[in-house]
Amino acid sequence: PSIFNMRALLKVAVLFTVLAIANAVPPTCYSRVLTLSEEIMDSVKFLQRFKRTSPCVDVLPKLYLDVHNSCIMSKLRDHLYILQNLTPPKCRDFPRVTILKNKVRNLYTIMSKVCYRDVVYLSDDCDAMEHPPPTRPSEGRPIIES
After folding, report:
1. What's the CA gap between 50 and 108, in Å, rounded?
2. Among 76, 93, 96, 123, which residue carries the largest CB count within 10 Å?
3. Where is the secretion signal located (predicted)?
């Protein structure tokens, strides 16, 4: 029984080591772009829910961040300009608005300097960046079948 317990303990230790190593893998440039774009959209949704911060994000144009759309860089640049210059002065003091501005700046910098070769643009439809993709085929644009 003691050899069996030692083998079982060894297997458990190896399993935990493998799991720890798997979780320690650094994110790729592409995965960081995806994560940051989701964080930005979540931050905007969060800020829209509160009376004090909703005026801060209401000045922003609607934006659905699709990192595979070639219009993303100009849209990010527009949002960054608005967050830095056109938001009401009281909004600049809110930490969450500052965090949003920093996330937009970071995503723009990562996409334009660090990951510019890692992201593949599959679309150039700038209007599509103002609306999230339809969740059902019946919503939004018609599906064209050949």
Report:
1. 26
2. 76
3. 1-24
